Amino acid sequence: MKKEKEFSQLIKDNQGLIIKVSRMYTNSLEDEEDLVQEIVMQLWKSYDNFKGNSKISTWMYRIALNTAITIFRKKTKALDTRRLLELDFQKENGDNDEKHQQVALLYKVIKMLPQVERAIVMMYLDDLPYRDIAENLGITEVNARVKMNRLKKTLKELMERYAEF
Amino acid sequence: MPNFDIDNLKKTWQEQNIPPKYEQDEILEMLNAKSINYVKYILWISCAEFLLVFILQLNDIFTDGINENIVRIFQRMGIKITAEIMGKLDIYYSFIDVLGLIISGIFVVGLYFNYKKIKVEKNLKYLILRIKTFRKIVNTFIIINFILLAINIITFLYLTWYMIDFQGLILSDTMIKAYSFGVLFGKILSFLLLYLYYRFVYGKIMKKLNNNLKELKEIESYI
Fold first, then answer.
1. How many Cβ atoms are within 10 Å of B9's Cβ, its own excluded?
2. What is the pLDDT of residues B23-36, one digit of tens each?
3. A15, A38, A71: best to mutate for the B interface, most B CBs within 10 A
4. Fewer beta carbons within 10 Å, N or C terminal of chain A?
5. What is the pTM of this model?
């Protein structure tokens, strides 16, 4: 029970990362909540094997992305507009209007990318070193760096195209 | 126009407001919830497939169903079946059934050990390749069963034509056409059904895995 409490506290403290990944790979609130649950279960299953050799965020990112990209089974098919509405709501009600718009736009354009590219961008935005990004995906550090440099250009173009002025 | 440089947006991204959604007791509840993932899905479907094949093989071993059917078809064609031929048929079909069971056993063990190797804490590429290997084992099992079925059909066809020739029977064109059509139609239909079944059950997950693997390989091809 002590281990379970320790784990649930860890998840509670780091739930932002899990929610971000879940939002990035689903289009409805129902799927998002299911994915959060599946990620938490997978993290729990591999908790014993986490020896603290890597940073907690790197370990969490790896399990969360692996779950989202490979093993998660979505229930819903159609695009749920609730997510967009929710972001719009934040945008209209937040005191940092410009920042909300930028975050909403970031989600929008990153979601347009293929699944592995989305993972690279998310880890990069959260400041994971290229070594960890490469290790999580099973590619070389050089490849991760080259890909991210190309993605920066793609994202800039997409943001310019989809930004509302 | 705002500056959309991704490096400048890092801070905004990291500071995005994600209000805490889950309390500790809710997280504890999640640990006992039912998992919905493709690996489990493939495992259960595969177990059901193995079980079905196993039951069919056991049924063949403990009943004379195949031989009775064969005898009935032969009788309709006017072919006489002697006790010696029946004995040989029995030995042949028992051999095929036992072989099928041994193959099933080997695959069940292989499937279990490969399931154990699927670890979500390994890197993405490893995980995708492991799931694909897992799926390939089930595919190979089904293909081998189809090969056994094809061997059965070919043997049956050979036996039929041999008996017709040996007993000097002359069949009508209609009989030959009906017989050939029946065998051909049955075979095409069974392959078609199997193909549709796999498309339906595994199509989505295999497409997803293949796309992601292709993406990773493309990234690796840069240098």
1. 21
2. 999 999 999 888 77
3. A71
4. C
5. 0.79
